[in-house]
């Protein structure tokens, strides 16, 4: 299998600046998406710092692990890269008054062998689209999700909540950060969708699924997702990363190793 990537960000209809950030290392099979928060310009500073640091650190650490890193090495690389990004954002917030309180959500995808490793913090999401069906792989680190889990509100009631954007974890707001990591088998044709809440708050999973069913081209699918989110109100910045596993003759590990040699 080979991988095909596409990414897009959009300011949306209600915001003047874009605090969402994406970073791709296609040869290294790494994708990072971040949704910043903070005062004037601080959110975009936080998300840009975090996405670029995670991408570069993760690539360097996995390169040092050799051609076929173990599961433990992959997890350690993910944790260390995100910890490094957290320290950078936290230190910048502490050192510059104009950045005080800034932070960012984060979702990072890493493909190795026939598996997808997905780590996240906050409410930016990762979905898998397989055989026409969309499945949310990440679980929001948010007050709203905690209320749903506790049975205080239903998922239907959550759609109309005033507290959608209150996250319980974020990069850069504390000295330590807790990255949630899971791994999944990859099948030919699998499509990974990573997005900020500017997409998932505007569209239902069913609407996203239908758009992915009707657009086989990744650029077309990405453009339609952004267009639909804006048509639904565009109340926040929108960020989308799409990654598809395509049938082919090239081996995942061999192609990755030849890149780093």
TrEMBL record:
Residue ranges constituting the PPM-type phosphatase domain according to the UniProt record: 5-245
Gene3D superfamilies: PPM-type phosphatase domain
Molecular functions (GO terms): protein serine/threonine phosphatase activity
One Pfam family hit: PP2C_2
PROSITE patterns for the chain: PPM_2
Top-rank taxon, per record: Bacteria
SMART domains per the UniProt record, alphabetical: PP2C_SIG, PP2Cc
InterPro entries: PP2C, PPM-type-like_dom_sf, PPM-type_phosphatase-like_dom
PANTHER family per record: PROTEIN PHOSPHATASE
Protein name, UniProt field: Stp1/IreP family PP2C-type Ser/Thr phosphatase
Native species: Scleromatobacter humisilvae
